[in-house]
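Researcher: Quick one. two chains, 1302 residues in total.
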Amino acid sequence: MKKRIIYSLFIFALWGCKEKYISPVISPSTGYLVVEGIINSGVGETNIILSRTVALSSNAINYEGGAKVNVEGDDNSLYPLSEISKGHYTAAKLNLNATKKYRVNISTLDGKKYLSDFAAVKSNPPIDSINYKTESQGLQFYVDTHDPSNNTKYYQWDYTETWEFHSTYQTYLKYKIVNGSKGQQYSVVFSDSTRFGWDMGQYICWKTENSSSILTGTTATMSSDIIHLPINSIPPASWKLGVLYSINVRQYSLSKGRYEFLQRMKKNTEGTGSIFDAQPSELTGNIHCTTNNDPVIGYIDVCPVQEKRIFVNPYQVPNWAYWLYKPNCTEIAVTNNSDSIQIKSLTLLPTNYKDINPMSGAIISFYAAPPECVDCRLRGTNIKPSFWK
Amino acid sequence: MALFMASNSFAQSDTSSKISLTLNKVGLSSLITNIESQTYFHFYYDSATLGNIEISYTTAPKKITTALAEIFTPLGIQFYFDNQNNIFLTKSKLLSLQISDNFFTGKKQTTGNAIKDLAFDTEEIGPLQEALVDKKIYEIGDKALSGTKNIIALAGFIKDNKTGEPVGGASVYIDKPRIGVTTDQYGFYTISLPKGRHILNIQSIGMRDVKRQVVLYSDGNMDMDLQGSIMSLKRVVISSQKMSNVRGTQMGVQKLDIKTVKQVPVVFGEADILRVVTTLPGVKTVGEASTGLNVRGGSSDQNLILFNDATIYNPAHFFGMFSAFNPELINSVELYKASIPANYGGRLSSVLDITSREGNKKEFTGSAGIGLLTSRLNVEGPLVKDKSSFILGGRTTYSNWLFNYLPEEYKNSRADFYDLNLIVNHQIDKNNTLYFTGYISNDHFNLNSDTAYGYGNKNVSVKWKHIYTTKLNSLITFGNDNYNYAINSQKLPLSAYQLGFSINQSYFKAHFNYNINSKHSIDYGVNSIYYSLNPGNYTPLGEKSLIKPDIIPTEQALESAFYASEHYTITSALKLDAGIRFSVFNLLGPQSINEYPAGIPRTEENILRSVNYASGAVIKTYGGPEYRLALRYVIDETFSLKASYNTQRQYIHSLSNTTAMAPTDVWKLSDPNIKPQMGDQISFGLYKNLKSNTIETSLEVYYKNIDNYLDYKSGAKLVMNHHIETDVIGTKGKAYGVELLVKKLSGKLNGWISYTWSRILLRMNDHTAGEIINKGQFYPGNYDKPNDVTVIANYRFSHRFSVSMNGNYSTGRPITLPIGLFSYGGSMRTLYADRNAYRIPDYFRTDFSMNIEGNHKVNQVFHNSWSIGVYNLTGRKNPYSIYYVSENGMVNGYKLSIFGNAIPYINLNIKFK
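Model:
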């Protein structure tokens, strides 16, 4: 008891309490242009995403569609980007001349023009490896890179995680609804009457997520350009590493200016909450509105983008504790008649039969479970990614 | 000198008590022990003059008066009784002591036999004004010299009769004409008075008021011992300022003694000087986890924090939760925020002068304290009885085990600290005293990250006080101050590093006080500080580390100042303090200095060239006069008006872009690119005492200008920056405010109420300096909290039980809130614009504490006391900060409270001897 008192006292004391805060301040409408992306001088795609700043109360992205986006060289070369979805502009394989400088030229629908500063093509060494290690917070992934010429110095990474997962229960049953005189009549039937097999389309799925924090690294303070930095971790028992997990890391080399821009953005938006917080500061990048002096957020650099993908399955990780299936899933038995179904299982999905009439093959009773335990499409997609093993 | 307490009434003491004695060649102390064990009497005497006598005496039960007469008369020792069971022993000497009871009361002496007739006649002495005055007359000087001078200088030490410690800050004054001085921290005073008869008043915090009748013939000394009033119900704390706030010329000065500090409830029950200082008008902090003080709009680096003359660069422990001063060793704290005396300089806003106690010169004693998070132990005692003493005190925390009970995410956190003090003083002879102070504090912590922080102060000083004549004395101080911090991280072997920073300063101070006459006294002196800064040392840690060692070259400079100030009593109502301080700052080589073209922003790309200076070369000199003026006009006994004007220069700056004072803030010396900060302040005040000086009220207004106040550019890098001038900007600041204080420091109910309305506004509109903040408009500083009310109340039910309560309300501090959101890097993120455009919610907190003392038996070896209390009684979740963070792609706003609940605490203090 005594321990408990001191314990709680101390938590309250030092870590006080953190409560959600909703600002009473009505933020002004800003609508500044946000330019995200990098010019890929290599063989991969160049992707530029345009959006507008929104009010503090809104958490939705306001993409900027209908703009004209070009990459321009200081040799007057011109590479137009095309809009593939609202706000998303892309060009394939620019293969730029590494001795020239390039910039982005944007004309938005409201008639304003934006230009980034010309930036030189920075070399970018290939990623040596993506490796992992079990640590207290789970499975920690590291990126290893080195530049023998000691020139790169400033790095940025982002990544895409994809993992395969399975539903807790397999199913070969489905509901059948008939509109009759007494209203809708429910029954459970086999999903595919021609072939009595599991419906794999609801059982095996994939989930993809992009990194959401800014990852940078520098060797400017080190004697040689060697990087070994943590980039992502999977907490113990996570569903990410239940069947097979893959991470694809993209590496960018940065100018000092873009590195500092990203560091500042990171400090403002990710590094807050301690007692000794640095105060938030304004962000200025290398993109300017040439029509008027509207603020613009963004910093454009040019480099070949390097990528590396690895796959991990749970058996490769020693002592890995994991859940193959979604926890807290249970089945109940339901009699196969419309009333029972309507009372007991309309919010559930049927999985397997319990009793079957051996003569007619009609289902007398069946098992049902919550949908997220049965249909994996509720948590991902059942379309197998092209790179999947 | 011994105690000179006497009384007109012997009748109330039980002088008919009988004693029996058998003594054979023993010292006086054996005699006294023997008598004290048989009666309720206590003896007071000067061991220096009476310590060596030898007594042989045997008697059957006999009246004490008869016995004492038989013992002492042959030895030429006089003895007196008072009405509080005290017996005083003395030999006539330098001061001729003559008791005049029968003279004034008109009665013939009937008891005792040590009383001689007076040598004066009535006319010469004049009528007695107050019946309370001790009816004993002290003759000062040589009667034969009388007539040669009309103004007589009187000097001496005032000490606590029980421990022999000096009583600093005591007022020594006469009423007609009004002449008064205050003792310095060594208990020394010097006063010039007209020849003749006076009633000398002595008042000090926590001591009984004393009045002495003196007759001055020529210059002389008079030492006095005061009796503590701790046991007194009526006067728990008596401010030495109780009249001096009206009478003194200084304004914007607040003095706290340690007893007051200890009554104020604080978090975890650790009596904390800096926390209590923040309850004074005009003093603010950014929040609960910061002991950085913001005085009248100044930043926390603009305070000169002195501990026995040593500069303490980081006065905080435990992430800023506690101050680094051991309350058991502190005597008093004085905060100067307007009229800063000319002997202080080098900081713009304030001087916080913390003085330690001196050790007990009579016996070995000690104290121990046990709290929830810390413990402390202090021992003190004489080295040579009545001549030298020491105090050794230490505190440490054992909070680490608590972390083991925290959730997993905090389990790897650690926090340790300790501080150690050693204070020694030695009185060589009557005119020479040496003082030694040593101080070490150390902190280590990591907040569940792989980065460990450590910082510490190390200070040592030696002081020599020399009295040339009763009119002239000097104080010479040598010392060295060191502050350093280190950060290391070794989780990733390739990039494991250690970052170190340190400031080292050696100083010399010579201060002279010359008391010319009753109208003029002057202080003058010279200060010199040699700085050596190690601005950053970034080195690899471990064999695998690829970190390239990066060392920013050390900076060194010499800051010197000459000053003189005159205290001029123009008329008894009008008094002027006029001081000038001429400070000179020399930045010294070796150093390389970047040069930038004029008129365009300083950036790394704009560096014209870098100039190397040789070792010892003077790179840049700044300097100029600083004026310190204060004027006081007394309207009547209890009401006065004051005005002051002050200018200050500051050559060392702390660079920080955190709101709170962080342990990783770096300090930087002025150089050709970073100009000294300059400030001037004008203030006016009204002072009125009510109810026979038991209630003090004051109203002060001020206006302050600050130049070259350092603010940082957006995204500034302040650590390991080889060209820090590119990341900071000089701003102009203005601060103004009104401070009201009502203070009652005596009576069962005591405490104070302060209210401050103040602003601090900054402006950066120099287009050539690069980034313009908030479009060149004035913006509020981080600690701009316009309204601030503090109530501190203590109610003493009995000797042994008192309760304290305090309350604090203030406007929320300004913060920079996001004005919008955008998507970048796979997450929504916040958009910031103007600095400090919004405020966090208002702050309100009340605390409560009970102080329970054990019994007060004087001869008990251990005395216990408990303090039990609740911090943040209402459990209000006062926001420390509001922040927005991107988490898993979404932006969430949070309100962070340091103390999110009521925090109970208990502390046990043990005193032993």
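The first strand of chain A starts at residue 17 and ends at 20.
Researcher: Thanks, that's what I needed.
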